[in-house]
Specification:
Radius of gyration: 17 Å
Order of helices and strands: EEEHHHHEHEHEHEHEHEEE
Structural class: alpha/beta
Distance between the termini: 14 Å
């Protein structure tokens, strides 16, 4: 995949981090559960997988089954969240995530995920990663990515202007949400490449974080 050829430096006041595909590799679980769901509903598995990354489950279902009642999507979503929370087989950190989060320990950052509290807590633990103090989860918002609500809430909670935030994302929905929020986006992994983030890297080993002299955050991508 194309990566940054020469070092790129981004200055920010806060970093907003997606979880699945960005900090945690949960693709094995997501593939198992969503492909099974697609089969149950007579949908093509490959086409389904192109929709589900980055969105809350009920939002994905609304796109895939547009005539289905919303209450049925919510009920299915709750069931699938429980299944995902119970299935940690194959859940691992994205390379570099632990070091990256350690570097952010005393710097403004937040987790902004379409997972709920139970699933995000379980997956971060399974990957051996600490949870950021500030977390915007599915319960925190009224609209799923690609709506920018989650990122805007995180920026407001940190007291940082959206334009001073950098988002880390892997999915089309997440990248669109970050852009709609007026934020710069670092794309992580092959999924991100096709959605036009400002910078794209294979994983977090390519990113260095340090406090800048003015109290901000200096990101070096190389």
């Amino acid at each position: 995949m194309p990566v940054t050829v020469t070092p790129v430096v981004l200055n920010a006041r806060a970093l907003l981090l997606d979880m699945d595909g960005t900090l945690v590799n949960s693709d094995a679980v997501v593939e198992r559960i969503w492909r099974r769901w697609a089969t149950e509903h007579g949908l093509d598995g490959d086409a389904t997988m192109k929709v589900v990354h980055g969105r809350q489950g009920h939002a994905s279902m609304a796109l895939l089954l547009p005539d289905r009642p919303h209450d049925e999507n919510l009920a299915d979503n709750a069931r699938m969240l429980a299944e995902e929370t119970a299935d940690m087989d194959g859940v691992i950190e994205v390379p570099g995530a632990a070091v990256f989060l350690a570097a952010l320990r005393d710097l403004p950052h937040a987790l902004v995920t379409s997972a709920d509290v139970a699933l995000s807590t379980a997956r971060m633990a399974a990957a051996g990663l600490p949870l950021p103090d500030l977390r915007v989860t599915a319960e925190s918002v009224g609209a799923s990515k690609p709506d920018p609500e989650g990122f805007l809430k995180a920026a407001a909670a940190l007291g940082v202007d959206p334009s001073d935030c950098v988002v880390f994302e892997d999915s089309g929905a997440g990248i669109a949400a970050g852009r709609s929020a007026g934020m710069r986006v670092v794309g992580i992994g092959e999924r991100a490449e096709q959605y036009g983030p400002d910078v794209v890297v294979p994983d977090l080993t390519w990113v260095t974080v340090e406090a800048s002299a003015d109290g901000g955050i200096r990101l070096t991508v190389e």
